[in-house]
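WARN no homologs supplied; continuing
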Amino acid sequence: MKKLVWIALMLPIALAAKAQYVVKGTVRDASDNSVAYGASVVLKELNRGNSTNTQGEYSISNVPAGDYTIVISMIGYITKEQVVKVDGNETFNFNLNPSERSLGDVVVTGTRASENTPTTYTNVSKEEIEKQNLGQDMPFLLNFTPSVVVTSDAGAGVGYTGIRVRGSDPTRINVTINGIPVNDSESQGTFWVNMPDFASSTSDIQIQRGVGTSTNGAGAFGASLNILTNGVSREPSAKVGVSYGSFNTQRYNATFNTGLLNDHFAFEGRLSKIMSDGYIDRASSDLQSYYLSGEYLNNNTSIKFITFSGEEKTYQSWWGTPQARLENDEAGMQEVIANNGYTQEQADNLLNSGRTFNYYLYDNQTDNYGQDHYQLHLNQNFSANWNLHAGLHYTKGAGYYEEFRNDDDLADYGLNDVQIGSETITSTDLIRRRWLDNDFYGVTYDLHYSKSNIEATLGGAYNEYDGLHYGEVIWAEYASNGDIRHRYYESQSDKSDFNTYLKVNLQATDKLNVYGDVQIRAIDYRGLGVDNDQRVIDFDNQYTFFNPKFGAIYELAQNTSVYASFAIGNKEPNRSDIIDAAPGTEPKHETLNNLEVGFRKVTENVGLEVNYYLMDYKNQLVLTGDVNDVGGSIRTNVPDSYRMGVEVAANIKLAKKLYWNVNGTLSRNKIKAFEELIFDYGPAFDEYNEVRTEFEDTDISFSPSLIAGSQLSYRPTDGLELSFMSKYVGDQYLDNTSNEGRKIDAFFVNDIRINYGFDMKGFKQVNLNLLVNNVFNTMYESNGYTFGYFAGASYEVRENYLYPQAGTNFLLSLSLAF
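OK structure emitted
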């Protein structure tokens, strides 16, 4: 099956399609004839283009014959438009005039890769984002990029969602917005539920796979997502949109842009509301957000203030569904009931539900959290060669999740036993809330120099995090000595994170570009207090990392190049690694040696990229498959492990109006030696013995050996695009033992998307979008966890929990632009 899928996806790369033309040329500074590196060159009618390289050269392939308006723009220069005629391969050269007021975008060159950076990356444009953006979270908008696997707790892409790249979990994926770190400082993950509809304020996303270039915030150990928000539009505009779909999913948003006012000011804003009942029972989401920016431009300076906020209330669905329930295994479900001490109500819920089973029944079993972000950006052009970007940021986050607990021990909450007559009560039903209240603030900068054959960036950041964790009992059947909002644990965390880096791109010869990048990162992470299980927290960990990267790109022929790079990344453990570590152990920091070797070629009909990667780890923290009591993944160090694979991505023009974007990843993801640790509690659950089993050459959990994506698009008329999209994800093991009884089965899912934009009197444009997910109603799961224990030598428990995704479902959107 894997081979058939691979052949079906890759074979058309070799097909020859109807010849189109190549438009190329150079862009220079009109004042001194120096090359204009990084200028954007776009064919307006096709909405397609490229950026100039360090020699000022650009090339746009697959251009049909016809008349076009070519638009050339660059920070610090006056935008130029010129009508050109294409009836063969054409060369058009341009000169740009410097401008005192052309700084419309927040430009963060320091953390992004360019075509001269020898690393592996994918750029996702605003146009591509808008086609897929009907209300689902950001990970689902990136599902068809190479090596990506996405998942949704609620089963339909709204609420708590996640993304893995090359098998690396979200704590390994560095996320920045305009160069500002987004990852939570303690868990190191990104919670997209706190940024609903953020894609509607996004102009561009770059996904770097592997270590990538130096960035700010959490170490990129599997990938990085660099998000840029919208820049200034010179013309005023407004847009309103509404989406509706399966599971009563609704999105309402409105945006405005003032355009450039008095040649100096510009403002943009967005309001969004998203609601969904979810595919899983009771897995509802109620999300709202806003985005507001204001910019001042004068001479060679721009100052931009951005604030955005997200608030979410989601009904918890992070428990997952027992595999026995998914398989309608009556005996297996009875074992789950017995092993977990279900009440009669809980047992009836399990036995009488289906794939949409949700363990939680309490009506306010909800997660309630909000984040307010503030960014202040300065862009300063000192000359045609020197540019400075500096940013200040502050994020305030606060919220809680509430849950009902059945028959918990009073002692677990610091409460005394209750004496009623001769009866001693040691446990109670209760409702608790667990709170986070945190502040994150800091400064980022990058100083950029570019001239002739050299480009250099000196950048870095200093960030501080202050986090308060605490829990409250807001109701108890037996309150004992507690008051309302009895605080039963509290801990404080503080984290300082400093990094500085220097990157240099040198055009050594006409064909050879060499690259170097060195980063120093220092972390001081402290925690003190009492955790939710009444354990004392007291740690003060310091880390200093040196992360070098170097590589080269060689141009074999026009539009054909090869590249190679080697990078070293280091990463500290996260909070749960430290506090959930097995007794007597302490998690170690991880080191990754990353080799990337690639080939890129663009012809008149095919754009092709093939790359080989080796990610060799020392002390990698891998998922055990188990989770803690709040659904967080538990990890452990393994001394030696690696990920090795080949990624292929192609953009093919099959016919005049038929296009195909396809990608695939074949990989091996192995742990050389893994020790599984589970516990034997004895027949009476009064013992605590370790059971250790050694494994060799096992698969890393949640790391499929084959991932493939396809988007086949037909554009019969202007403004209409019909797309058939496919995604294949191979088997994923739930732990690191390669046990066939503990895995997520491979799945192959197909979607249909229709995008139609047209003009209508009274509107600038009307857009209708339809997305039908899982058109063949495939029953599949995209995530899960497992755990096990012994209750005496003769009784072994192994339970798998999976996250089923929705069958056939749809989203329909309408937007009106004024």
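The domain at 237-320+358-817 is CATH 2.40.170.20 (Maltoporin; Chain A).
OK
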